[in-house]
Design goal:
Largest sheet: 8 strands, antiparallel
Keywords: FAD, Flavoprotein, Oxidoreductase
Protein name: 4-cresol dehydrogenase [hydroxylating] flavoprotein subunit
Strand content: 15-25%
Radius of gyration: 23 Å
Bound molecules: flavin-adenine dinucleotide
Distance between the termini: 29 Å
GO molecular function: D-lactate dehydrogenase (cytochrome) activity; D-lactate dehydrogenase (NAD+) activity; FAD binding
Number of helices: 16
CATH superfamily of the largest domain: FAD-linked oxidases, C-terminal domain
Helix content: 25-40%
Structural class: alpha+beta
Pfam families: FAD_binding_4
Number of strands: 19
CATH architecture of the largest domain: 3-Layer(aba) Sandwich
Shape: globular
Number of domains: 3
EC number: 1.17.99.1
Length: 502
């Protein structure tokens, strides 16, 4: 007798066409790959819907046959899971392959409406075709990542539109039972303000669909920013690890008072220069982590210190921005430790150009070269928040350096600073070809998670192989989410286990 999974695929082939279903073992192996310590999680099949109606059909048949699904849009969640499902055997719904249209760009009201497969590179190209009067916010990660997937995982960028969830408006969602919900004003039939009026009528729903498994988003509005005529980045290096607390004290007032429109990055040496280097095993005779003397050598080689601070100003002309540049120079140079690098100088440097690109809404592949640091590109992100208080920031630095060092890994971290908190982007890079090191990377992540949670600093986004554990650390919320899940998805067809919700 055919299994329920086989019956599911047969019904899908009949309803959606054979091209929408792939169960080829090579495809499954490819979709199961991720860069994480927990290793591959192979799905049972991959589906390629071409419309919202097809997503509805998939969800309804999943209910009929008791199959669980895993939605992915562009599937570039590097260091967080790629396209791989949270549990092996789930069926990947790859929305990106065939639902990849920019549905609309409204140049007057500065927004776009996109399907799940629209990538940052694609949107950048389209905005360019229209003369770059509008600018999107992008990540510093894969240009083939996309607006919908990144937003739904609470991803972020660096310009004033950095908060991708905050800048999204009006979702079309296929619920686990197959109905279509339109959020914001979209719930009102014929509404002309779906992509303009974010909060709509009644409880605000959009948040239910980020980092969750309560629906599959098939369309989204995203707000765009008028492109500033001139963008001028600024850079400062600081020589010592211990300067970090002072830097945070210098950055906070700039953001609280809105002096700098972008987020301000405080990037550790190896995060900044790691795109240009690989781990020097020959110099350490195979030992890890990297000794401080070698780290200092690398800093000197690339003209950096222990920290790189960067941000950007926007304005009508170079002359208009010059006073702001002078003001920021005076602010940082007063510390007596900073060295200034101008925009023009930074444009000559591949590693500094990454930051200029991210402040300019321009996708870049260059930061992905960080993944070459150790063989096999093993990578997992640890993403707590650090308050914008120098003393706490220094404690966090010490905690992270200790735990990473004890596990044989480097401190490769970028603090992306707003007025009150910075998102501490820790990239744990490990040799994925070495089973022992892979497991050690997993233990390191868990040690960081425990230490930060115990100290009162939980994470905001988790790789698939740590989502259940991270959610289990929270109180009351897991139970509330579980009740919501049962109400909206009684059969548990959409990604059970995602972000620990089942
Ligand atoms: C060097 C480097 C730099 C990076 N820089 C950044 C950065 O600056 N900012 C940042 O945010 N990230 C960054 N990343 C992490 C990651 O690569 C990006 O966030 C990437 O954009 C996420 O992949 P994606 O956009 O293809 O989304 P996807 O992988 O398609 O989706 C992400 C998750 O959202 C869920 N999802 C996707 N589509 C749907 C849907 N339609 N309905 C319901 N759920 C869905 C899935 O669970 C999926 O796991 C970086 C990674 C690296 C390696």
């Amino acid at each position: 007798m055919p299994s329920s999974l086989e019956l599911f695929f047969t019904a899908l082939r009949e309803q959606l066409g054979a091209e929408a279903v792939d169960t080829n073992p090579e495809t499954l192996a490819r979709y199961g790959v991720n860069l994480l310590p927990g290793g591959a999680r192979t799905p049972a099949g991959v589906l390629f819907p071409d419309s919202t109606a097809q997503v509805q059909a998939i969800v309804r048949l999943a209910n009929t046959h008791g199959v669980s699904l895993w939605p992915t849009s562009t599937g570039e969640n590097r260091g967080l899971g790629l396209k791989s499902p949270v549990r092996p055997g789930q069926v990947v719904v790859d929305l990106g392959r065939r639902m990849n249209r920019i549905v609309e760009i409204d140049e007057t009201l500065a927004y776009a409406v996109v399907e799940p497969g629209v990538t940052y590179a694609q949107m950048y190209e389209e905005l360019g075709r229209r003369g770059h009067t509008l600018m999107m916010d992008t990540t510093s990660g894969p240009p083939d990542g996309g607006i919908v997937g990144n937003t739904l995982d609470k991803g972020a960028g660096y310009t004033p539109y950095f908060d991708h969830f905050g800048m999204s408006c009006g979702y079309e969602v296929v619920l686990p039972t197959g109905e279509v919900l339109r959020t914001s004003d979209g719930a009102s039939p014929g509404a002309k303000t779906q992509y303009l009026s974010k909060y709509g009528f009644g409880p605000f729903m959009d948040g239910l669909f980020v980092q969750s498994n309560l629906g599959i988003v098939t369309r989204m509005g995203v707000w765009l920013m008028p492109k500033p005529p001139v963008i001028r980045a600024f850079f400062f290096t600081f020589p010592d690890d211990a300067d970090f607390g002072d830097i945070i004290e210098l950055v906070r007032p700039l953001k609280l008072n809105n002096v700098v429109p972008t987020l301000i990055k405080v990037t550790s040496d190896l995060y900044a220069l790691g795109t240009e280097e690989t781990y020097p095993y020959e110099r350490t005779h195979g030992r890890t982590p990297l000794p401080n003397e070698l780290r200092k050598e690398l800093q000197a080689k690339h003209g950096l210190g222990a920290w790189l601070v960067s941000g950007a100003f926007y304005g009508p002309s170079e002359e208009a921005l010059q006073p702001m540049i002078e003001r920021i120079k005076a602010h940082f140079l007063r510390s007596g430790k900073a060295r200034y690098i101008s925009h023009a100088e930074a444009e000559q440097s591949r590693l500094l150009r990454i930051h200029i690109a991210t402040f300019s809404g321009q996708p870049t592949r260059d930061e992905l070269d960080l993944l070459r640091w150790r063989p096999g590109s093993g990578a997992t992100w640890f993403l707590p928040a650090t308050p914008m208080v120098g003393a706490i920031a220094n404690e966090h630095q010490a905690l992270s350096r200790r735990i990473l060092g004890e596990h044989g890994f480097e401190f490769i971290t970028e603090y992306v600073c707003g007025p009150r908190m910075s998102r501490a982007l820790h990239l744990i890079l490990f040799n994925r070809q070495d089973a022992e090191e892979r497991q050690r990377a997993g233990r390191c992540f868990r040690a960081l998670l425990k230490a930060y949670s115990d100290a009162g600093y939980p994470i905001s986004r988790a790789p698939i192989d740590a989502q259940e554990e991270a959610m289990a650390r929270l109180e009351v919320l897991p139970d509330v989410l579980s009740r919501l899940k049962k109400a909206l998805d009684p059969q548990g067809v959409v990604a059970p286990g995602k972000y620990g919700i089942s």
